[in-house]
Amino acid sequence: MNPLKSIFKKTDPYFQSQGRFSRFKGIYLATRTFFFLPSPVTTTAPHVRDHIDLKRFMSFVILALLPVTLFGMFNVGYQYHGGNATWIDMFSTGAGQVLPIILVSYGVGFFWEILFATVRGHDVTEGLLVTGLLFPLTLPPTIPLWQVALGISFGVVMGKEVFGGTGRNLLNPALTARAFVFFSYPVSMSGNNVWQLSHPGVDALSGATALSLGGTGEIIQETILNAGFSLDRLFFGFHPGSIGETSALLCFVGAVFLMVTRVASFRIILGGIAGVILTSLVFMVLPGPKDTWFSAGPLYHLFSGGFALGISFMATDPVSAPGTNSGRWIYGFFIGFFTVLLRSVNPAYVEGVMLSILFMNIFSPLIDHVTLKITAARRIPNV
Amino acid sequence: MSEPAKSEQAKRRHAVKFAAIISVVCCLLITGASTGLKPFQQENRALDRQKNILRAAGIVALDAKPSRDQIQSLFREKIHEAVVDNRGNFMKPGEVQGLSLYLYREKNILKAYVIPIESRGLWGKIKGYIALEPDGRTVSGFTVYSHSETPGLGGEIEKAWFQKNFVGKKIYNSAHEFVSVSIARGSVDSLPRDTRINHVDGISGATLTGKYLTRGLKENLKQYEAVSVRLRNNKGIIRE
Amino acid sequence: MSEMKLTLKETFFRGIWKENPVAYQVLGICSALAVTVQMKTAIVMGIALTVVTGMSNLIISMLRKKIPSTIRIIVELTVIASLVIVIDQVLQAFLYDISKQLSVFVGLIITNCIVLGRAEAFALANDPLPSLLDGLGNGLGYGLILVAVAFVRELLGAGKIVGFSVIPQSWMDAGYSHMGLMVLAPGAFFIIGLLVWLKNSLPGASREEKTAQ
Hints:
The structure holds three protein chains of three kinds.
Chain A: H1 3-15, H2 25-35, H3 54-81, H4 87-120, H5 127-137, H6 145-157, H7 173-184, H8 186-190, H9 220-226, H10 231-236, H11 248-260, H12 266-285, H13 298-303, H14 307-314, H15 325-345, H16 353-378
Chain B: H1 2-57, H2 68-78, E1 79-84, E2 90-91, E3 99-106, E4 109-120, E5 125-132, E6 139-146, H3 160-164, E7 182-183, E8 199-200, H4 207-223, H5 225-233
Parallel strand pairs in B: 7-8
Antiparallel strand pairs in B: 1-2, 1-3, 3-4, 4-5, 5-6
Helix pairs in contact in B: 1-2
Chain C: H1 8-18, H2 29-34, H3 39-63, H4 72-94, H5 96-102, H6 104-107, H7 113-121, H8 128-158, E1 160-161, E2 164-165, H9 169-173, H10 180-183, H11 185-201, H12 208-211
Antiparallel strand pairs in C: 1-2
Helix pairs in contact in C: 1-8, 3-4, 3-5, 3-7, 3-8, 4-5, 4-7, 7-8, 8-11
Catalytic activity (chain C): a ubiquinone + n Na(+)(in) + NADH + H(+) = a ubiquinol + n Na(+)(out) + NAD(+)
GO cellular component, one term (chain C): plasma membrane
Subcellular location (chain C): Cell membrane; Endomembrane system
């Protein structure tokens, strides 16, 4: 027998309901299922209706996030060196900056998760594996680590545990954490120079993000181009921004993977993309300011900022998204709509993705309610 | 049948009588409080205004808390209220409707003149004072005494760090044109070198407040442009 | 009289903790969000509301046999409004800076449900002395929550306690910065929510004698 398995087998009775350490059953189960398949299938929400359970479900998301994370590390180094270094150098510089952020996020997050699981006597859930990685990806690489710790604490406790834990939360915990840091420490989150590490020797690319441009009197597309943000640069991701948001390409690759494996709802993702395209097209046609993001057009809106990351990985969180199929279309569409709306007409918040997803999270129970009512009313009554 | 009707009537009469008594008593109470305390309130308001004018003129430090007597004596000694018409001619106060401003004199030499500012903000009106040096182009101080901006973001306009940045800025650009003083988006260091003197550091996360205040400052300063021009031509001396 | 007989002590302390108007009855939340950025304004607001609830309960209880039931609410509101206006005038006269910061919220005590609620629920049915104590207790309970919320918000949001800086400069140099969320209204929501959570999970929460001290 596998030696690891025998250890678990031996210690198992202590953690069962009559055992000496039954209080710590949550920690025990979490450790065991980290190595082996758990025996019981999903019993609480989110109810993944498939042969895979929540844990496998979450590991698919992690898998889809890996390219984004690795590229994020590389890009942080790329921005730092201004592109003038070996690939290894750039990657290791970036990893040295990003890995501590991820570690702090996981460490502090698991502390709260285990604390609540122990006090309440429920199992440690796997949602944190995703939350703890998603949250750092939405942050600028220069974020102080203590703010990461506070942010993930807020996200896990106020975004999830106060509602009763995984499966009962109204809001996406990773975005709740980001919103907390965003409103608490605006200087770390929305300054012009927070998006890249500063390098004393190299006068690298500008530290601002494409979304903070505009209002100069020039046509917006020209302003963006002149600042060095060509469409392909935005698409591939070699520009300053939050760790995981820069490469729209890799985010969409992850999205396709999740859609094909049916982990993420294609309705939400496609609905969101449709929302952005339609809204930005309408704004382009409307007589509005030509020098702001109001008339930037669909491609710029799709590829810049955190939209690709948000719609692929956060809007599709099955807990905080609607459960009905038609509801998912509506939900996705409005996320896209509000993203463009906030970027265009509210320059106080240059990035609207976070707020639009959180906003629609709050509406998703209502969307479910309404779509169910409509479906029920349409049904031909059984005679 | 007449018995309950009568008591109904009596009840109604009682209600009216009661209401009348309560109203009279409450009226007396409020009127008493209001008139009795009025002198104190007016003094407070005047003091608050005077304090802000003194701060804008740079007589009192932005974060200092002068006592009542200090404010009153400083104000009486150094500040003179004046009224100008829209061509910059000084008029007798109270004579005609005109633009009011405050002159800061030290031993009869003009040190600064203080212009009241009323601007639109993100959520409500921003009221304050801006002081200019007698050369008619240099800002010597700026204060805000009333606003309803978001605390921590736009609300930072009432903080000393923000207001200190105005000191020494010019309302004229290098080509000697009136441009007013603007709130930059982010730090002024990101602007072209020659326009930095016309900008102050913006507040992170409060782009709109900055935008409205910039516009408001420009409008207000423009109204007083005639005075500034006159001062500039007369080398800082004004004849009233 | 629908309520059970309570001792005077119980009448007074009930409002402070066990049936606290903010944490238990969830009343007066609007002003609790607005005036709790600083402790100074929270304390003044707490005192103002305590005076108003105490006085209005006392007056209405004394008049309770005379007030015609048809115009009951109007009379109560008239009394409350008069008291509030007087308080507002006094603040403007003697505490001008604070009254400027409290702005409309002193005037809005009139619409604060706690005041009318206590007048309706208690003063109309009880003797003047218990009514006074009930009003004072509820006002102080409101003030207590306000001060607690303001303490957290001022400490985290501005690094100050009652206007005195307590965060050493060395912390600021080391990269500490104030939590902007605490200065915004949602910050107060979170703190109030956490306070309610804390109150409900305290073991002695249901026993007022033990917790009121």
